[in-house]
Amino acid sequence: MQPISLARRLGLVAVALGVFGAPSAWADRLDDIKARGTLICATLNSSEPLGYQDPVSRKTVGFDVDTCAAIAQRLGVTLDLRSVSVEARIAELSLGRVDLIAAALGYTKERAQQIAFSDAHYQVPIKLIVKTDSTLNALADFKGKKISANKGSTPELYARRRTEAEVVTFQDPPAAFLALQQGKVDGLALAAPSAVRFVNETGGKFRFAAEALAFEATALGVKKDEPALLAAVNKALADMEAAGEIDALWNKWYGPNTKFNLPREKKLTPISSFE
């Protein structure tokens, strides 16, 4: 066999580039998802009713799980559900281990530098839970006190930003609430959909402080520089909103016939409104 000349080699390289394109042209996550036939979506697994383990089926269920399934259906693929912790959400997405994050992901400008956010499909207040006999109500009352929060969560961020309390972090809401029950902290910072369960199920021993930490826009997370996937997710959310599906999912998990009884106060809102 005769050796291939330099000119011939260069020609083959040019043909290859013409067929396959530069890496930035063909490395498209949406194409990968459709070729694979699955959407890898990560949710929490210990935050009822967003994502938690059903005691009977032992499967992870919840509002975020159903949202992932609806997005996958509209993309024409099946759902590959993964569990993720609060502190690992952004890392798992940035490393490309998952396609989409639906895990109580509150929008912040700091996070938007690391990942891309879909439009906000709901907004909730971040509350402070205290003991019923506590005198703490205004944010200023927490100066010099201790507040527990999920490590890496938006409630942790706002507790540090808006109070002069010492913030003590835990791996999940039950552990953070246990610290409050045991008197190790004076308050617990948590988004209302998760917080209301602890208030409602403790026989009047706990209540919300009068002043909320913030009003949080919650969205889905996509890896940076994946405009096609982000656009497809936003299109799916818009279709779901128009069909009343997001409202239906919210009522299923949070509505008047649940122990949470929380209204969905805000409709789908462009994430640009919060930038």
From TrEMBL:
Family: Belongs to the bacterial solute-binding protein 3 family.
Signal peptide annotation: 1-27
InterPro entries: Bact_solute-bind_prot3 (IPR051455), Solute-binding_3/MltF_N (IPR001638)
Keywords from the named record: Signal, Transport
Protein name in the entry: Transporter substrate-binding domain-containing protein
UniProt source species: Azospirillum oleiclasticum
SUPFAM superfamilies: Periplasmic binding protein-like II
Boundaries of every Solute-binding protein family 3/N-terminal domain copy: 38-257
